[in-house]
């Protein structure tokens, strides 16, 4: 039997809401996962049970961007050293956030003997062979041959980073990967979608471990990682068991207030104060009618009740200041008015698709950057971006645009993104 921790989307270095404390939280969450792996060794040895994990599998986006700062790099190195000292291997692939044009950070950790970069050759732990599939932009997936070297282990798992079917926002077909792969996988361990979920595709277990800290306010569920056990049944066939382990992360308090006519900031403050806000990130969302609310007044109330920080989004504000006689805005449906205005602007199809993606309320913030990356990547492939002469250079700029767009959505109090973000 082989037992592994499957984690990913750690996003170390993300200074969410421009908060140094939040940045530390992302590193803390990684350390908590590593601690669990290390602790499982001593618990397993002490009790003689086989609770010990045999490896930590990382499915990409260990770092939030390709240029992590020194404190984050040193923090990760120190955690990996502790893991190595406990004789637990760290096997990983490269995600879209941290990918560089040449050598990856993961290669440095590998050179230091602290990690193994998974790929087309098997890395065998216990009686399971692990393979890797780094994130590949959509426009280059047709070139993939899914050619993996054979193994003689009892079970095999593919570790990948991307938005795969049958999960929401997918643009990468799991059935195709499994059909074309030269190795028969018993499990596919994924990163990229920050929502933990498990499904079966053609008899293969496919699972996302979820992010380990909330990288956007859409990630309301508790954070954690997967504990995956590979075994075999009486007939000798491989079995896969996926379980969730939750992590003790920064408290988030979500306060959704629908104001009635005549209600205002007092009502919002009253709703906010009903929660325990100690050290919490407080995310306030205002809908309905009522009087104008100054976000600063709500934020002050949250901070004085012990919150780490507060973000207030007044969904009634969109289009609220627009001069109705000038643009004929229908206040009942500001989104429709914005759509109308965007149509009039005569943007290119790519710009329009980007705009739709960024404002798509059904698309979680955490997926916006991935979508934007795919769209820009496709535009580059089609040659429809004017100055994308060098596809490699364009890649680098795209990644910055993604981050800016995502930051704008995550961080900007009014959730506005201008098209400058994509240039
Ligand atoms: Mn991610």
From TrEMBL:
For this protein, the Enzyme Commission number is 3.1.-.-
Pfam annotation, one family: Metallophos
The prosthetic group or cofactor this protein requires is: Mn(2+)
Question: What are the catalytic residues?
Answer: 97 (proton donor)
Give the top-level enzyme category: hydrolase
Please give the residue ranges the record annotates as the region Disordered: 384-423
Chain residues that bind Mn(2+) 2: 61, 96, 161
Query: Which GO annotations describe the biological process of this protein?
Result: double-strand break repair
Biased composition annotated in UniProt, kind: Acidic residues: 389-401
* Database matches in InterPro entries: Calcineurin-like_PHP, DNA_Repair-Maintenance_Comp, Metallo-depent_PP-like, Mre11_archaea-type, Mre11_Halo, Mre11_N
Q: Name the HAMAP family on file.
A: Mre11 (MF_02044)
Protein role: Part of the Rad50/Mre11 complex, which is involved in the early steps of DNA double-strand break (DSB) repair. Mre11 binds to DSB ends and has both double-stranded 3'-5' exonuclease activity and single-stranded endonuclease activity.
Name of the protein this chain belongs to: DNA double-strand break repair protein Mre11
Task: Write down the species.
Answer: Haloplanus rallus
């Amino acid at each position: 039997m082989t037992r592994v921790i499957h984690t990913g989307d750690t996003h170390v270095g993300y200074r969410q809401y421009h908060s140094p404390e939040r940045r530390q939280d992302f590193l803390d969450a990684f350390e908590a996962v590593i601690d669990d792996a290390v602790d499982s060794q001593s618990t397993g040895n002490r009790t003689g049970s086989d609770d010990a994990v045999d490896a930590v599998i990382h499915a990409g986006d260990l770092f939030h961007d390709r240029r992590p700062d020194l404190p984050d790099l040193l923090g990760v190195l120190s955690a990996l050293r502790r893991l190595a000292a406990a004789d637990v291997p760290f096997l990983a692939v490269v995600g879209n956030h941290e990918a560089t044009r040449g050598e990856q950070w993961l290669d440095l950790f590998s050179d230091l003997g602290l990690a193994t970069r998974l790929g087309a050759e098997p890395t065998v732990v216990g009686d399971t062979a692990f393979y890797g599939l780094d994130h590949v932009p959509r426009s280059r997936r047709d070139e993939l041959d899914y050619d993996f070297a054979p193994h003689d282990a009892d079970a095999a798992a593919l570790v990948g980073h991307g938005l795969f079917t049958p999960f929401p926002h997918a643009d990468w077909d799991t059935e195709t990967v499994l059909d074309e792969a030269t190795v028969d996988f018993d499990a596919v361990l994924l990163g990229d979608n920050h929502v933990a979920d498990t499904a079966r595709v053609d008899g293969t277990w496919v699972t996302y471990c979820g992010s380990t800290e909330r990288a956007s306010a859409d990630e309301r569920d508790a954070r954690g990682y997967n504990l995956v056990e590979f075994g075999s049944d009486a007939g000798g066939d491989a079995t896969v068991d996926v379980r969730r382990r939750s992590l003790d992360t920064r408290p988030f308090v979500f306060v959704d207030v629908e104001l009635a006519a005549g209600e205002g900031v007092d009502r919002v403050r009253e709703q906010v104060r009903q929660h325990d806000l100690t050290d919490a990130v407080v995310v306030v969302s205002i809908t309905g009618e009522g009087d104008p609310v100054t976000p600063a007044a709500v934020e002050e109330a949250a901070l004085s009740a012990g919150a780490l920080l507060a973000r207030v989004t007044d969904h009634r504000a969109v289009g609220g200041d627009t001069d109705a006689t000038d643009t004929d805005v229908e206040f009942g449906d500001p989104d429709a008015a914005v759509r109308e205005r965007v149509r009039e602007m005569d943007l290119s199809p790519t710009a329009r698709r980007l705009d739709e993606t960024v404002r798509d309320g059904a698309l979680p913030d955490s997926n916006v950057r991935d979508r934007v990356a795919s769209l820009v990547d496709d535009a580059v492939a089609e040659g429809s971006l004017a100055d994308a002469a060098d596809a490699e250079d364009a890649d680098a700029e795209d990644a910055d645009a993604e981050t800016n767009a995502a930051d704008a959505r995550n961080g900007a109090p009014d959730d506005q993104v201008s098209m400058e973000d994509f240039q």
